[in-house]
Amino acid sequence: MFKKIFFAVLVVSCFPGCSMKSLMVKTFEVALPDIRLAFYGEKSPRQAMLAGPALLKILDSLIISAPQNETLLFEGVQMYGSYGLSFADHHPEWAARIHERGFEYGVRLLELSSGNWSDAFNQGLPALEKRLATATLNDLPALFWTAANWAGKINVSKRDITAVADLPLPSAIMQWVYKKDPTYFHASPAMFLARYHSSRPAHLGGDPEKAKAYFEEALRIGQGRFLLTKVYYARDYATMNQDLALFDRLLQEVTEADDNIMPEFLLGTAVAKEMARDLQKNKNRWFNISQDSEGAHSGTPGDSLPDFDGGDLPNLDD
């Protein structure tokens, strides 16, 4: 379906007149939220991973035709963020490029909607905090997804010291979002802050107690339905603190949960279950457990997903 839609977009973009392009943009501006919901409703991570690049290219084509359309830019920053976060573990280098594009769309959206964000992002934490002090609730969705893409790129670029040094910036944005609406996107602001404090040593701002409190708050707000929270709780916090009992309990809860526990985000549930199964099979990587006693899995994360390799990866620069 997405390939047919993409072809239609390309055909219309070749027409010299503006009327056909305007009609296509207006049509998709209305349809894109439903297309996004259909993507979120996909039960198969494999199918979502295969379909995603075509959908992202549709968004790119539409944004080229209407570069100041705020609705399209918001769909762009959200879809790039969702896709990158869902499959970052399988192709980190590609995910970094996905998040880079999502971040670009987020910055463009914020500049159009309320202005003066690019300088704040580039001038360091004090400038960003000053700009956040004047932000409004209307900025919240764009700020959340921009920060999610920014942090997503950093998380898959940990060998880039310059990129890692910027992590306090998206964290400051998420702190602002958390204070304004901790329930946004299934309590993701609290989950993000939990991961931030789990992944960093104390001298760099990490705090295991804060991490645990944020994870528990995210689970409470989301009523345990957003299973990715439990996966990250196990992978980021339980492993860092060598809490094998917590690790096992959380992942068992994920794998045994109803596939329809979150009808509005079936893809997130499916991805969480796949990640949980992989963590269970490979827990000897994080805990001092005999491979013989645990039957360690010799595969790699995401064995069931398509292995885009080299030239098979969609070219985001086209």
Q: Can you describe what's shown?
A:
With 318 residues, the protein is mainly alpha-helical. 69% of the residues lie in helices and 0% in strands. It has 16 helices and no strands. It has helices at residues 2-13, 18-40, 45-65, 70-87, 92-113, 118-122, 125-132, 140-155, 161-165, 168-180, 184-199, 208-222, 227-240, 244-256, 266-281, 291-294. Helix 4 (70-87) runs antiparallel to helix 5 (92-113) and helix 4 packs parallel to helix 8 (140-155). It is globular. 39% of the residues are buried.
Based on the model shown, name its key terms.
318 residues; disordered N terminus
| Multimeric organization | single chain
Q: What Rg is obtained from the alpha carbons, in whole angstroms?
A: 20 Å
Mean pLDDT: 85
**How many helices?**
16
Q: In this structure, how is the largest beta sheet organized? A: none
Structural class: mainly alpha
